[in-house]
Amino acid sequence: MSEAKNLRQITVTDAHWCDYEHREPSEIPDLSQTKLTSLKLIVSTLQSSIPHSLGFVTSLEHLHIALPLMSDLEHSNIRGMVPTSFVHLKNLKTLRLEKLNIFRFADLTDAYFPSLEVLSLLNTVHFTDDLAPLLKSAKNLSCIDISSTSVSLNTTGLILPNLTSLYASYVKGRPWIMSDTSFWPTFPNLKILSAAAAPIVGSISANIGDMKHLQQLDLSGTSLTGQIPDSITRCPLVILLLRSTDLRGPIPQNIGLLNQTLEQVDLSFLSQGSILPDS
Predict the structure, then answer these.
(1) How far apart are CA 118 and CA 135, in angstroms?
(2) What is the predicted pLDDT for the residue at 192?
(3) 261: Cβ contacts below 8 Å, ≥ 6 apart
């Protein structure tokens, strides 16, 4: 009897957690009648797609689909759309689609994932959707990781009141205009923004000073211009990384006020003309 047939005979009706390592999606049994709350599917490198049937495991709270950790992204052939059936996953709190060739959510609507708290599309290439419509219904989101992902995020009119961590280093997509005063109010309780080499343009708007919880800010290697606003000293920053940007002009004299909280700062390789404050 084949390995796939053996796998289909596994009884998971009363299980609450399943972990399928190095399986093809086609080998995963029908789980729609189970009470699973967590499913981890580490797929092999053969070409396949996300099973439509997973969207009918309505008890799922945590779903992780990824290529094996050490696999080369060039061999990631798990491709296609996130199935329309995923609209039924109303209890989903964690969704990790990592190192895949997913290019969009099918029929993206505001109805997706109202309970979602963690979304990770880490290293998922060729993703073409703007995430904003998806996120509008996910008011409970606390963490987003779109690092090294081809994705756009239009923050206009978007408010994520519970988001505390946004990881977007090396993301590829439409530029984020940080000089737009609507940017920071999108994330009023943000603690971590890690966006090194992200497509960020414009200057840092003065209302960054309203970010009363911001502790880590990494905008290294971006195309930021203008000056560092004095208001940044109102943030309780522990880590400030602005290395290799196009920021210029005098660095605020009162940047020293951050010394009460600041543990790491990197302002190296700023544009010519930047002047460090007197010690």
Answers:
(1) 11
(2) 98
(3) 215, 236, 237, 238
Q: Other C-beta atoms within 10 Å of 200: how many?
A: 22
Contact between residue 93 and residue 115 where contact means Cβ atoms under 8 Å apart: yes
Hey, how many other C-beta atoms are within 10 angstroms of the C-beta on 180? 14
Of residues 170, 218, 171, 169, the one with CA closest to residue 191:
218
Single-letter code of the amino acid located at 226: G
Separation in Å, CA 6 to CA 10, 11, 22, 82, 188: 7, 11, 15, 27, 50
Q: What's this model's pTM, rounded to 2 decimal places?
A: 0.85
Report the Cα 158 to chain-centroid distance in Å.
Answer: 15
* pLDDT tens track for 59-116: 999 998 887 765 555 555 566 788 888 889 999 999 998 888 776 776 655 567 889 9
Residue 13: what pLDDT? Answer: 37
Please compute the mean of the pLDDT values over residues 138-151 and round it to a whole number.
Answer: 90
Report, as an integer, the average pLDDT of 200-225: 94
Cβ atoms of residues 179 and 205 within 8 Å: yes
Residue 14 has what DSSP assignment?
Answer: T
> What are the E-state strand segments in 70-134?
79-82, 94-98, 101-105, 118-120
Measured distance CA(116)–CA(138) in Å, rounded: 6
CA distances to 182, 246, 248, 275 from 229, rounded to whole Å, are: 16, 14, 11, 14
Token pair of 129 as six digits: 């959707």
Which one, of 84, 171, 187, 181, lies nearest residue 139 by Cα? 187
